Inverse folding.
């Protein structure tokens, strides 16, 4: 028969109780975007294939937009790190939302890998916003662009938004890469 003294049993019970009181997911996660500094060639190839297929199947008339979301008078490099993260998070949110729209079976299959990659990147960025700058207020440049994005979501056609997101997907990936590189040196 196993005989345990009072102290070891007490330690085990307290350890289990404290572990339940402070779940692991409640601990603050660190923010690391380093895996986005250099994107894997297979991810880039999947995104390129998706973009090319989209350009081939999307009628030019559905691509017409009044709002030029990705034509900005400033560069991402001019933004602070928290602003960059907020920008890329909003860009990825738009892209993933548009990639979740109903599509032809062939395009739906082609976009699955890019959608999974972009969704993971968006979740990682959300973690960074929550841990590194939870109360950050965007600069005037970024605030103006975010307002422009919200207005476009209300006024532009779905085809326009989808085309903007997909046709500028490499700009979004470059913004993600810039945010990851900047974070390394911040």
């Amino acid at each position: 028969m196993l005989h345990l003294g009072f102290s070891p049993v007490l330690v085990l019970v307290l350890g289990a109780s404290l572990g339940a009181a402070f779940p692991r997911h409640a601990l603050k996660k660190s923010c690391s975007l380093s895996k986005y500094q250099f994107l894997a060639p297979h991810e880039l190839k999947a995104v390129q294939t998706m973009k090319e297929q989209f350009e081939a199947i999307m009628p030019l008339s559905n691509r017409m937009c009044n709002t030029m979301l990705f034509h900005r008078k400033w560069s991402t490099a001019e933004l602070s790190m928290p602003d960059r993260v907020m920008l890329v998070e909003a860009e990825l949110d738009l892209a993933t939302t548009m990639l979740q729209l109903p599509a032809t079976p062939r395009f739906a299959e082609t976009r699955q890998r890019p959608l999974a990659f972009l969704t993971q990147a968006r979740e990682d960025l959300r973690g960074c916003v929550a841990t590194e700058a939870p109360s950050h207020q965007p600069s005037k440049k970024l605030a103006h662009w975010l307002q422009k994005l919200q207005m476009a979501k209300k006024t532009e056609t779905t085809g326009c938004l989808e085309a903007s997101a997909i046709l500028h997907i490499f700009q979004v990936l470059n913004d993600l890469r810039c945010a990851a590189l900047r974070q390394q040196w911040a």
In short: The chain has eight helices and no strands. The domain at 51-57+73-181 is CATH 1.20.1250.60 (Growth Hormone; Chain: A;). Residues 6-28 have pLDDT under 50 and may be disordered.
